[in-house]
Amino acid sequence: MEIVALEKLDPAQVTDCARILREAFAASGGYGGPSEAEREIASFLPPGERFALAAVEGRRVLGLVGGIDTYSHAMELHPLVVDPPQQGRGIGAALVKALEAQAAARGKLAVYLGTDDEIGGTSLFGADIFPNALAKLAAIAPTTGHPFFFYQKLGYEPIGVIPDANGFGKPDLLMGRRIAKT
Ligand SMILES: CC(C)(COP(=O)(O)OP(=O)(O)OC[C@H]1O[C@@H](n2cnc3c(N)ncnc32)[C@H](O)[C@@H]1OP(=O)(O)O)[C@@H](O)C(=O)NCCC(=O)NCCS
Fold first, then answer.
1. CA of 28 to the centre of ligand 1 (A)
2. Are 12 and 54 in contact (CB under 8 A)?
């Protein structure tokens, strides 16, 4: 497996990136609209403030990660996806590490991300986060499992929460990790 810049892929591989995005987020209803996944992938081409990296094995695309240059010193990780049959092989972790290396090369000090809990998986799903949102975030625990805990394994910590981001009891969980110091 190697990790390459999205713009190095051929058109069929870029199309496959959109398929992976659609299929991996099917359960949560993400990228369900017509051409939504294709538009998301296209937004990273050509690279600039938005860039993406793909994990490939031969000609096969295994997954991808995007980076968005939102702040001068912090980079947003979005999106991250691994083709469902390829999950659990360490590909997601490798993509996050590669994104962090790119972020550091661009002078960033931190990487941050938002991970929605729209279908359950954490103790905050279905809960009223007001009042004391941050105390509830600090006590978050897995129920059926969620990428929040994947990111936690990679050193990301909770840095905020958007209550009801996707409907009542469906928050967006914000996480971040320092990757360099001044
Ligand atoms: C989340 C996702 C990117 C993880 O990628 P992956 O390649 O399956 O994960 P890895 O194999 O690299 O896992 C790395 C470690 O995290 C753990 N892990 C993976 N998913 C986890 C989860 N949901 N909860 C807890 N731990 C998890 C793995 O067990 C592994 O642990 P180990 O190092 O002790 O063996 C992948 O499941 C995915 O694409 N999901 C659908 C899209 C999605 O939810 N993206 C994130 C949106 S913010």
1. 16
2. no
Q: Which atom of ligand 1 is nearest to the CA of 121?
A: 23
Span 171-181, pLDDT tens digits: 999 999 999 98
Read off the DSSP letter of residue 137.
Answer: H
Residue 174 amino acid letter: L
CB atoms within 10 A of CB 168: 11
Does the C-beta of 181 come closer than 6 Å to ligand 1? no
Ligand 1 centroid vs 55 CA: distance in angstroms?
14
Question: Is there a contact between 25 and 78 (Cβ–Cβ < 8 Å)?
Answer: no
pLDDT one-digit tens code per residue, 80-124: 999 999 999 999 999 999 999 999 999 999 999 999 999 999 999
Residue 63: φ, ψ to 5°: 175, 175
* 88 close to ligand 1 (CB < 6 Angstrom): yes
The token pair that represents 88 in the structure block: 């659990």
CATH numbers and ranges of domains, the chain: 1-108 (3.40.630.30), 116-182 (3.40.630.30)
